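BUG-358 | component: ligand-complex export | severity: low

The export step for fe (ii) ion jobs runs without errors, but we want the raw record kept on the ticket for reference. Input record follows.
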Amino acid sequence: MAPTVATPISESSNITDLVVTNGNGVKGLSEMGLKTLPKQYIQPVEERITVSNILPQESIPIIDMSNWDDQKVSESICDAAEKWGFFQIINHGVPIEVLENVKDATHRFFNLPAEEKRKFSKENSPSNSVRFGTSFSPEAEKALEWKDYLSLFYVSEDEASALWPSACKDQVLEYMRGSEPIIQRLLEALMKRINVKEIDETKESLLMGSKRINLNYYPICPNPELTVGVGRHSDVSTLTILLQDDIGGLYVRGNNDSWVHVPPVSGSLVINVGDALQIMSNGRYKSIEHRVVASGSKNRISVPIFVNPRPYDMIGPFSEVLAGAEKALYKQVLYSDYVKHFFRKAHDGKNTIEFAKI
Ligand SMILES: COc1cc(/C=C/C(=O)SCCNC(=O)CCNC(=O)[C@H](O)C(C)(C)COP(=O)(O)OP(=O)(O)OC[C@H]2O[C@@H](n3cnc4c(N)ncnc43)[C@H](O)[C@@H]2OP(=O)(O)O)ccc1O
Ligand SMILES: O=C(O)CCC(=O)C(=O)O
Ligand SMILES: [Fe+2]
């Protein structure tokens, strides 16, 4: 069996085997007390964030959802989705306790011994719906990312209860249930603006037919300035509901080559438009590039719920959006082909959506 505790690290050690293959993750590496970043994690200079390209005076909108019936709330949501593709919501109705429980459960899962987590690696997992991994697409990446994850594809409560890790499944399921009304409301508001008056069965499948939840763990990094937690990407979802802890480090693309920090706001959820919604709205709503920096002093976690079409859905611009003279910017693509295209390569920002462009 592969080693689960400290193996001396030297230039000649096979870090990829230790981290990726043996399931120690980057957390295992971090806990060995490295003084310098292994070369496999050194990102090209252009992929690192520096103070000079951060816009400290800018921020994404924070929307108070307590008066949901107020038309102004829907308008703010649609405006933010058009302009920023990113916003935070407060007073959204998911109890704080549910959010705290899922954060605790995330720490509990990542604090398991490597041999327990390894049971959920791509090679060992009892199901394709449960996967413990590290970085993004280690086989395709020139430089690895400083992040471990547990990815859970939601099929049914029964399957989740049977197959998801017991360290976190109850809390994750509760969080998914609690966020359901928000997802429904956000999508209803967004659809109205683009002339989709009713979310019927077909639209429901296209907009929210499947869900994936990731638990992300970004351990303390010896040289955070040389690497990334997550590289530049847009999500391939319809919408993403992201819970972050109080550490910070998520940045959203501003104008040109600038980046805007998404500060942790207690009790809030970060919402972002994904590529699938950009395609269905024919570019009206924007999936915006974002990235996460590594931290030199704190372990960070985040928990995104990716709300998606079903894998076998064909996605393209909705007929309601094209009802006028508007020209389609995207073709019809099989959603699972789109997702496979995303996972097949390293993160490369907004280039993924070229796959669906006419
Ligand atoms: C990990 O770091 C990330 C992740 C993200 C994610 C952002 C999102 O928006 S996730 C939402 C994705 N949508 C869905 O999952 C719903 C639809 N699902 C599907 O279409 C399919 O289940 C599938 C994901 C395409 C998998 O289909 P399947 O037929 O089972 O194909 P495979 O051969 O198993 O996988 C293809 C290819 O993708 C890799 N992969 C699959 N699942 C994951 C996963 N959860 N995490 C990472 N990679 C995954 C798999 O390894 C295959 O690659 P190979 O090289 O092995 O061929 C955002 C940012 C991040 O940093
Ligand atoms: O950790 C974060 O704040 C964002 C993570 C992210 O962008 C993702 O998992 O898609
Ligand atoms: Fe993301």
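Assignee comment: Attached the raw record above. Residues 169-193 form the longest helix (25 residues).
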